[in-house]
Each structure stands twice: as C-alpha cells, then as structure tokens.
Amino acid sequence: MAASRIVIENCAIATVDANDTEYASGYVVVADNLIESVGAGSAPTGLENVVRRVDGTGHLLTPGLVNTHHHFYQWITRGLATDHNLFNWLVALYPTWARIDESMARAAAQGSLAMMARGGVTTAMDHHYVYPRGSGDLSGAIIGAASETGVRFTLARGSMDRGESDGGLPPDFAVESLDDALAATEATVDRYHDDSFDAMTQIAVAPCSPFSVSTELMRQGAELARRKGVRLHTHGSETVEEEQFCKELFGMGPTDYFESTGWLGSDVWMAHCVHMNDSDIAAFARTGTGVAHCPSSNARLGAGIARVPDMLKAGVPVGLGVDGTASNESGELHTELRNALLVNRLGAHREAALTARQALRLGTHGGAQVLGRAGQIGSIEAGKLADLVLWKLDTLAHSSIADPVVALILGAAAPVTLSLVGGRTVVEDNHLTTVDEDVVARSTRTEARRLARITAAG
Predict the structure, then answer these.
(1) What is the largest CA-CA distance in the chain?
(2) Nearest residue to 273 (alpha-carbon basis) of 245, 315, 296, 303
(3) Strand 201-207 vs strand 34-40: parallel, antiparallel, or unpaired?
(4) Taking the chain, what is the end-to-end CA distance rounded to the nearest angstrom?
(5) Mapping DSSP to helix (H, G, I), strand (E, B) and coil, where does residue 24 land?
(6) Fewest Cβ atoms nearer than 10 Å: which of 302, 336, 356, 372?
(7) CA distance readout (Å), 336 to 45, 180, 247, 270, 418
(8) Reported pTM
(9) In this structure, how many other beta carbons lie within 10 angstroms of the beta carbon of residue 309?
(10) How far apart are CA 377 and CA 264, in angstroms?
(11) Going by C-beta distance under 8 Å and a sequence separation of 6 or more, which residues neighbour residue 340?
C-alpha cells in the first residue's frame, strides 16, 4: 500500500540536526509515521497520496519537545507547601501522596499529559515511585493515560524501600520491600516495554533517591535494568542537604555513591544534578551519564542553579524536565526552554551561559539523547519518526521578533497550530484532538478534592 503523505510547507524550520540546519522558508514531507524529506523552498512536485497539505506561513516547525523528568501524580497536589525547601516539602507532602490510588493516579496522569501535549511535548516521561499498599494498578493507569493522549511515553517505574522507621522520609505504608519492588519493576518491564524503532511505551528502572532507597535496591535495580536491557533513572545531587546526607550515611558524595552502586553509564540519566563539582561532571562525561535539567522546579524549591553550560562543554547529555507539578505548577515544557536560558544566565557564565538555540536543543535532541532515542526522535531528519510541532508566531505576542527561534524561546508561549506524533495529529489549533480537555480538568479537580478529604480524615 502506498504511503499516506502530509506536506507542511512555507514555514521556518529549525531541524536541530547535528549542524543546526535551519530554513527561513521550507517544507517537510511526512510519509506514514516517518519524515520522508525536509528542505528549503517548496515541497517536491508530483508527490503521490498526499492526504493533507498544511500552509505554515507565519510559523516555526521544530522537532516535538521531549520531557525527561516528571511526577504525574503531583498534578492533584499542586499549590501546596509553596515556601519550602526540598526536604521540608517532601515531609509536608508525603502523608498526602501516600494515599493516592489507581483512580487518582490515572486522573493526575491525564492532567499532566494533556498540559504537556497541548504545549508541544510529543515524548513524555513519568518517574512514579509512590506505590501505597492496596492502591491498585498505578503503572497500568499511568500507561493507559499516555496511550489515550497519544504521546510517546517512558514510565520510569520507581520504588522506595526506606520508610520513616529506617531513617527515610516517606511513611512506612507508602514504601515497598526490596523483593516486592524488584519483582514489580521486572513485571512492569516484561509487560509493557517495547524496544522497537517506533515504540510508544518504554520502561526504565528508577529507584527514587538515595534518601528513600536502600543501597541494595540501588545495586539490584541496576543489575535488573541491565539484564532486561532498559534504562536507569533516579534523582541525583539535587540539594546541599542530599550531599550531606550521602556523606553522613555512605561516607561519600552522591556521584561517588552512584558509581559504587553501578549507577553511572550511558544507559543512566539523573534528575536535577544541581550540586555537581568538576570531578562529578567529569565522571558523568566519562561514563555518558545523562541529566534531566529542571530549572523551574529547582527555583521553586530553592535548590540552586545546575551547571548546565559546564556539563554541555564536557559532553554530558542534557535534556529538560518539567518535574512534578507540586514543584512546577505550570506543568508544561515550553516554560523550561525559557527558564533554562534565563536561570543559567544568573550563574557563573552570565549572558554567555546558553543561547536560544542551545535551549531548543536541550528540549528536543538533548531529551532524545537522555532517553536513549536520539536515533528515532529529537531532530527533523529524513528517516526519523514524524514527531513535529508547528508553532504559530505571527500573533501580537511575537510580531516584532524577527528570529523565529528567539521568538519561540524568549517570547510568550506560542500557540501550537499542529502537533504530530508519528504522523498522527495530537494537537490542532491549540487544542488536543485525542482527549477532551474539559473532561480531564473536571476529573482532576474531583480526584484532588477526594485526596484532600482522605488526607484530612487521617
């Protein structure tokens, strides 16, 4: 059967390929789920089976955004503990999070995914690590929500086995035993992970953090991931307090601790990595360990400024993350493009820290690298999956910014005229086509109120 083709033309294009190729006015031809061709000027004539032509005049076409760190369940606990640092914030919210169930997890995932997708995210990720006893099939609920929304998805199946009685932060009834966590993680990989080129669902092994996970869970989790051929994810070097905790408990800093447990490597990426010294960055570069940079969450919790320019210079793979919406209430990734540039300019490198194009690369190709999918997504190149976003830049908000990439990164949030995931339309004229946003909003409000009542009742 002949391929069905979509032609997008007359738009500016930022391919984010290895040469940062851009076209002031160009075209992309999509054949079924793949990018068939991209170039300057008009699309080739004589194309067969063209089912749609999109006039991109006044628009910028980019690869779809890739989110590399999130906690979907937090959608139903937004706006709480707004003046806390990380440890106090966790202590304040764990008693609420420990009461989530399957219905809540599904609604929260729907809200998180809908907000990201309508803002240009075509590949999402969720680090879910709260599995209270008797809460139902939380992983299945989250994966189901991602399937409905229509985005590519990595579930980082998290775990915690260090509760309050063992010196950890979460309540004991919200953690799993070592054996249960490993067994459930392996079962999730076996059931859901797809390693095909156009996979919509992948699984990573993801113990939560050094202060909520035993060393044995870290070690055996790494062994499990490598035996199954999947990636590894956790939180790392987020705060000064975490560094102190690791030194007191393990006699070494976070990076050395991760290396001692098998948690550095090209199949690993870590969230935050704010407090990294030169040797830490060198270790990440040497091993190919990736970083999910979450500037808004880092600022919300007062964690600090990650050394992203130094990481990039050293060759560390870096992508962007929304992080949980209890520490980044906006819940969408375009904010992170802008804030990555702005926040890093407050650091040591000042105005030379990041450019607009580097910020765009973080949110697209960098994210694809971190998730291990740079061969399939993250840039507009023939043969890659047709995960594309067409941003409308001819409105008042961007009317006097001549450079379309600068307009996208530093201007107001641009409307999404079209978002494709594997050639399938997910957003049209700034509205989701796959789910009803109003229904999702009502569901998340209902579940947030139910969770608040359950928590108040103790």
Answers:
(1) 70
(2) 303
(3) unpaired
(4) 60
(5) strand
(6) 302
(7) 39, 35, 31, 17, 20
(8) 0.97
(9) 18
(10) 24
(11) 293, 295, 308, 320, 354, 359, 362, 363
* DSSP result, 227-269: HHT-EEEEEES-SHHHHHHHHHHHSS-HHHHHHHTT--STTEE
Q: Which residue has the tokens 């995932």?
A: 109
Q: Which residue has the tokens 């068939």?
A: 36
Q: What is the DSSP string of 393-418?
A: --SGGGTT---HHHHHHHSSPPPEEE
Angle value at C-alpha 371, between 109 and 305, nearest 5 degrees: 85
Q: How many other C-beta atoms are found inside a 10 Å radius of the C-beta of residue 229? A: 10
Distance CA 384, CA 407 (A): 26
Place of tokens 């139910």: 450
Cβ neighbours of residue 144 closer than 8 Å, sequence gap 6 or more: 106
User: Is the Cβ–Cβ distance between 389 and 395 less than 8 Å?
Assistant: no
Q: Within 13 Å, how many C-alpha atoms sit on residue 117's CB side?
A: 29
**Does residue 19 sit in helix, strand or coil?**
coil
The count of other CB atoms within 10 Å of the CB of residue 413 is 16
Tens place of pLDDT per residue across the chain (458 aa): 789 999 999 999 999 999 999 999 999 999 999 999 999 999 999 999 999 999 999 999 999 999 999 999 999 999 999 999 888 888 889 889 999 999 999 999 999 999 999 999 999 999 999 999 899 999 999 999 999 999 999 999 999 999 888 887 788 888 999 999 999 999 999 999 999 999 999 999 999 998 889 999 999 999 999 999 999 999 999 988 888 888 998 999 999 999 999 999 999 999 999 999 999 999 999 999 999 999 999 999 999 999 999 999 999 999 999 999 999 999 999 999 999 999 999 999 999 999 999 999 999 999 999 999 999 999 999 999 999 999 999 999 999 999 999 999 999 999 999 999 999 999 999 999 999 999 999 999 999 999 999 999 97
Which backbone phi and psi does 84 adopt, to 5 degrees?
A: -115, 150
Amino acid in the structure at residue 163: G
Q: What sign has the CA pseudo-torsion 444, 448, 454, 457?
A: negative
Tokens for 131, please give them: 């599995």
